[in-house]
Amino acid sequence: MQNHDIEVQERFGNTDAYKEHELKTADYTKEKWQAVNGGLMAVFTKFAECKNNGNTADSDEAQALVKELQNYITENYYTCTKEILAGLGQMYVADERFKANIDKNGNGTAEFVREAIEIYCK
């Protein structure tokens, strides 16, 4: 088990979402994981494009992307409630590993995603 996997299990192992994630992804191959994670990153790329096109976090475009992100997570990982989504938005900025990964699409993308999620979840 990798350090990341251990950390996730320690933080979320007792949650329903974690248990659902374990069941949903149990038969994912390495190739499936790459495809699913690549699809998730593609959504973050869309957020960067949205931001770079001058849209604000409360724009219809950004809010549609939050819904797309929520649906993508639900379809591929676990049921992503608004409560979970709000927590993810905070984590995307607070955890430097997530922030750096999302900001590969352009500086400020993680903050833009977090702000759009906050608006969506209210």
Note down, in words, how this protein is organized.
The protein is 76% helix and 0% strand. The protein is mainly α and 122 residues long. It has seven helices and no strands. The chain has a single domain (19-121), classed as Antibiotic binding domain of TipA-like multidrug resistance regulators (Globin-like), CATH 1.10.490.50. Helix 3 (30-52) packs antiparallel against helix 4 (60-76).
Question: Can I get a quick summary?
Answer:
With 122 residues, this protein is mainly α. It has 7 helices and no strands.
List key phrases describing it.
single chain; 122 residues; mainly alpha; Globin-like; 7 helices; globular
What is the fold's blueprint, element by element?
Blueprint: H1 3-12, H2 16-25, H3 30-52, H4 60-76, H5 82-94, H6 96-102, H7 109-121
Rg measurement, Å: 14 Å
**Could you describe the largest sheet, including whether it forms a barrel?**
none
Structural class call reads: mainly alpha
Terminal Cα span: 37 Å
- Enter the CATH topology name: Globin-like
**Helical percentage:** over 70%
CATH superfamily: Antibiotic binding domain of TipA-like multidrug resistance regulators
Low-confidence stretches: none
Assigned CATH class:
Mainly Alpha
SS summary, helix count = 7
**Strand composition percent:** under 5%
Rounded mean pLDDT score: 90
Count all strands and give the number.
0
How many distinct domains? Answer: 1
The coarse overall form would be: globular
